[in-house]
Amino acid sequence: MTTVAQKIEDLREKLRHHEYLYHVMDAPEITDAEYDVLMRELKALEKAHPELLTPDSPTQRVGGKPREGFVRVPHSSPMLSLDNALGEQELRDFDRRVRGLLKDGEAYAYVAELKMDGVSMAVHYRNGKLAQALTRGDGTIGEDVTENARTIRSIPLQLKGHRANLEARGEVVLNQKAFEKLNAEQEANGARLFANPRNAAAGSLRVLDPGITASRQLEYFTYFLLADGAPAQKTQSEALEALKKLGFKVNPHSQRFEDIDRLVAFCKQWEEKRDSLPFEIDGVVIKVDSVEQQNRLGWTAKAPRWAIAYKFAARQAETLLESIEVNVGRTGAVTPWARLKPVNIGGVMVSRATLHNEDEIGRLDVEGGDRVLVERAGDVIPKVVRVVRQGEHRIPFRMPRHCPVCGGEIVRAEGEAVSRCINTNCPARLKESVLHFAARGVMDIDGMGEALVSQLVDSGLVKNVADLYRLTLDDLVELERMGKKSAEKLLANIESSRKQPLPRILSGLGIPFVGERTAQFLADAFGDLDKIAQADEEELQRAEEVGPKVSQSIRRFFHEKHNRELIDRLREERLPFKYEAKRKAGGPLAGMTFVITGTLPDLSRDEATNLIENAGGKVSGSVSKKTSYLVAGAEAGSKLDKATTLGVKVIDEAALRGLAEKGG
Ligand code: IVH
Fold first, then answer.
1. Assigned superfamily of 316-389
2. pLDDT digit string (tens) for 143-168?
3. Could you read off the pLDDT of 587-597 as tens digits, one per residue?
4. Where are the domains of the chain?
5. Which residues line ligand 1 (CB under 6 A)?
6. Cβ-Cβ contacts under 8 Å for 395 (sequence gap 6 or more)
């Protein structure tokens, strides 16, 4: 008779096996539907018998809740990077150095592995079970991303046939197809595009919500196997074999070489073939095979002497730059770009390249009509590297004074490289403005997410943030995925946001350099939005922490016609323009500065801030010698380290409450 426990263990074994075949071997034996049936069966049994649930069950990949921050954990041994060899000569120089450091005539071999362009990560196993995953961090201390790593299907939750304590190091990558799919989704959601698969992998791994990592189709390729921070095998080639046996994914194209000429040929071959692979590679990593020899060769401060990265040359081509145009992004940033005579670079037709900003154009000294060298580095947007030959009839670039989308003024703030359209209602930046206005800590309109804002703006229902207050139930139920219940809830949330005090409204306007804190100081000093809108720069600078840069930005903002119209509209909506500074000059915490870090047991960040400010104290974002107290909760990170180093007093939530009542 099979017990439930046995049945559950059987299902788990089956699922692990099929996950391995699918995600590691790329050779599934059952269909997705068949897999789902097994998974559902296991889930049902675990639900009925919660006492049998274990963290290494295939059902437990996504379980973690979003966290507040990452915990920093030291690596078992440093995760250093590699020196680069650019071209054949430098690779041969490396080989000569290695030979010179070994004994006369001593035999040695290399293992060459493709250098996958992703982010490195270390995964620790205790008793054969996944225990912890760390990003590289600064090489000495990494960040704990265990919950995120668990969602990557090619990372075994349990090692095959092994109960040891081991560490596998490798690269988290996103293949080209998954990268393109992700960017298409980002675009559809109005979210920022990732520049290349590496950034996308990094951005998908280092997120607080494991659900996001789970949705991104990341893969993990391993290349080191360690025990107690040192190689677990005698040679690198054996390590790669051992990793495969343990159930890890290892790039199949590695090869062992005793002959440097063959090694050089291998590198060149892959440089030619790089586009035939499903994922980005940016070179070949070459390691001395014998660990004993590696130890003798040793390390410099930065990198091992026994390994090197042969870097591929960038993919470049020369073409005509026809003209320089501008594009207005979601933040109002006006970005110049080059219209190119279409040219084939490594199999992709390229007809535009980014020029970043005015300074970059100046640095390149590029004008319309020039012949330019263009580079595609696995990036979505290629870039102009340099001018090859100036054109006969050059057309210099001038940043337009008015936005090509809305006609609003384009301004480049002092000390900033980017020019921006400052009209908050500019269609190009409206979605971003609305999201910012509705965000938590600003107007706090719950439920106003990206998808909804996109619909509201695209349908023309919302042309500026004041329009939010005119939305009706009929308007909302017309939208996709919007039931009557959620529409009513949303309207209620919009309604209650009308009560948000002036500092919130001010920071909600998205005036450059006016965040939460400055908005508070402005409200304290003026007590009236209309007064702020009319104040000249000198008057504005009477507010705490407002200098010339901020006051100029505020003046510019209220000078723009569309923004003044927006203020009129908000007044019509009867949002509270007047404000009575509630901060007491005295109070038990007067004169003290606090920094909050980690998760407090009962108070949210906002609540703790309110508590401190209501008692006359100040809250700052970073620890310095001037900090009076660091309020630390669970999973406090670098701020706690810094406070300890500087000798700043560290207190918990209970002590904070005590201080706020009685004073220090
Ligand atoms: S070995 C000390 N092997 O390239 C040894 N790295 O600068 C360092 N990479 O940070 C790593 N594929 O992110 C190694 N087969 C491979 C690799 C590889 C990609 C990345 C890794 C590392 C960087 C080297």
1. Nucleic acid-binding proteins (2.40.50.140)
2. 999 999 999 999 999 999 877 899 99
3. 888 888 999 99
4. 4-60, 84-311, 316-389, 400-582, 593-662
5. 80-82, 113, 115-116, 120, 171, 223, 285, 304, 307, 309
6. 323, 324, 367, 368, 369
